[in-house]
Amino acid sequence: MIATCVGLSLTKPVAAAEPESCPGLIASRDTLFSRAALRQNEVGLTFVGHATFLIETPQGVRIATDYNDGTRPRVTPDVATMNKAHSTHFSYHPDPAIKYVLRGWNPAGDPVVHDLTVQDVRIRNVSTNIRSYGGATEYDGNSIFVFETAQLCIAHLGHLHHTLSPGHLKRLGRIDVLLVPVDGSYTLETFDMMEVLRAINAPLMIPMHFFGPSTLNRFLTSARDHFPVEFSDTAAITLSRATLPKSPKILVLPGH
Question: Which pLDDT score is estimated for 130?
Answer without folding.
Answer: 78
